[in-house]
Amino acid sequence: MKIATLLAAAGLCLAQVGVVTAAEAQERPSLSAARCAALTGMTIPAAQFALPTSGARITKATLVGAVTQGQGHADYCLVVGRIAPIDKAAPDIEFNVGLPASWNGKAFMLGGGGFDGFIPDVTGAPMNTEAGQPPLARGYAVFSSDSGHKAPPGSPFALDASFALNREALLNWEGDALKKTHDAALAVIGQAYGRRPSLAYFAGGSGGGREALQAAARWPADWDGVVALYPARDGMVLALAALRTSQALAAPGAYPPPAKRALLYQAALKRCDALDGLKDGVISDVEGCRAVFDPAKASLNGVPLRCPGGADTGPTCLSDAELTALRTIDHSAPLPFPLPTGDTSLPGFNVYTSDTGRPPTSQMQGAVTFFAFGMAPPATPPGPGMSFIFNIADQAIRYMVTQDPAFDSLKFDIDHPGRYSARLRELSQLDARDLAMGGFARKGGKLLILQGTDDMEVSPRATEAYYAQLRGSLGDAVAARMVRYYEVPGFAHTVSTIFKPASDPVSAIEGWVEHGVDPADHLVVTDTTGAPGRTRPLCPYPTWPRYKGGDVNAAASFVCARH
To answer: How would you classify the pairing of strands 333-334 and 303-304?
Structure first.
């Protein structure tokens, strides 16, 4: 299954941004088959890179026939290259550049996901977003890379961090590969078309969202607009929060099977669905629900969720051990010392109001379950059916923190990390670099961030904290000019059976950067799974959609409310 990740479907005025007139098309620089083929063998000397490399080489360049993409198509030159490391033991950075035969004069970089190790398809949209034309079909020169290593064969969803044992490979994954790929791609673009791009954008989701924030903060001169979807940033906090969740679920009797998780979600819906004024199967007022819903005291159809006496009596109730695990996951927890990112605690997750993995009756529900609690409790070594969050935590602890592939990650003591304390600080210092957005703001760069409220991989509370940090460091006035942050009720990590929005982030960021169309006033999302076709306003955080009356499936029937 493809991991679909989605932003907001832009309003009518934004949808027109990507339209190209006949006159504009005639003025576009063109690229012939011969000029494309001539790129093969091109070398890029180390002096052309801002960061240390041993230079780069283009291994292949081929003109590809028209590839249909949404409402458009484009002939393009597929350029394949490698950036050589300084450390001979480190892997190359493998990258691709898609050069359209008719170029719009702009560039677009696509982020990866997870621990990367693959090259995102340059013909696609950011993380397989579903609405609007992808960048290449719009005429962008598009580039992407594997972040500086290749995932081993059979590694699912980029879930291998063994590359981190090599220092240069780790630094590449932590962001250096973004700049190196950018510099190589711009050299290729300049050679192909005879000039540099006039504008450049970056978009990615999850790990690619982390990369988007790193790119804007560290190299603001390179980017005009950036889209970060549910960004898996603050890697050490994310890994420790995922480990804390996994340790809670690994405790004896603590792992609730999917049938019990379905009961929990049904009880939350019964109590909280109507808090936004409409029973539509979506908990939009998450904060309000947290204030009134406690599974230890809740009932479903008149039957208490808590098992009689707290003992596990079967699939129709939650035991005290299971409720304790859920409470641990819901609550934040103090860190043993402040991290360079400014974090003093681990965020909790919206575990009571989210789909944590019901019985997988469909491929989509199976993906939701994988990104939440999985089908089997965490255990060492990780095995089939275990969740994405445990695999992420396990890889990060073994290969990044302890640097010991044989380490039992479930035994890592978060409260007393001992000799690993310095390593946590060191890795957190690398994470902290995405906070330095002052240069991007001064340039006039624009940043869109989107997060699902039901995400059990990237906690929405962590993304909310990042947004607060940006506002605090930049000041409200500057932040208001630079960043828009949205939360989508019912949307989980890349997928959802409750509310999965179709999106066109490319039009949204284009409209804001190039035409001054503020996305805060124009974005509407369309559900593709829960009730396909219904629309809701995309509300800037901390607001959420409240029903005011009218067609229950129309965004116009909702207002963005706040507490």
So the answer is: unpaired
Q: Give the three-state DSSP class for 60.
A: strand
Given 144, 145, 206, 246, the catalytic residue: 206
Give me the percent of the chain exceeding a pLDDT of 70. 92
CB contact at 8 A, 201 and 445: no
Q: Which of 285, 455, 504, 527 is catalytic?
A: 455
Active site residue 144: no
Cα–Cα distance for residue pair 387/320, rounded to 1 Å? 22
71: closest CA among 127, 128, 138? 138
Give the pLDDT band of residue 30 (cuts 50, 70, 90). confident
Q: Which residue has the tokens 């981190």?
A: 164
Q: How far apart are CA 359 and CA 265, in angstroms?
A: 12
Q: Which two tokens stand for residue 171?
A: 């630094």
Q: 109 in helix, strand or coil?
A: strand
Q: 225, 219 in Cβ contact below 8 A?
A: no
pLDDT band at 27 (very low <50, low <70, confident <90, very high): low
Decide if 54 is catalytic. no
Quote the CA–CA distance of 437 and 486 in Å, as a whole number.
18
Residue count of the chain, please give it: 563
Phi, psi angles (nearest 5°) of residue 202? -135, 140
Strands 106-110 and 93-100: unpaired
What's the CA gap between 360 and 492, in Å, rounded? Answer: 15
| The one catalytic residue among 493, 496, 504, 507 | 493
pLDDT tens digits for 210-261?
A: 999 999 999 999 999 999 999 999 999 999 999 999 999 999 999 999 999 9
pTM of the complete model? 0.93
Element (H, E) at 260: helix 258-272
- 149: annotated active-site residue: no
311-320: pLDDT as tens digits: 999 999 999 9
Report the C-alpha gap between 291 and 305 in whole angstroms: 18
Residue with the larger pLDDT of the pair 28 and 365:
365
Strands (E), 309-433: 333-334, 345-346
Write out the DSSP string of 474-515.
Answer: H-HHHHHHHEEEEEETT--SS--SS--EE--HHHHHHHHHHH
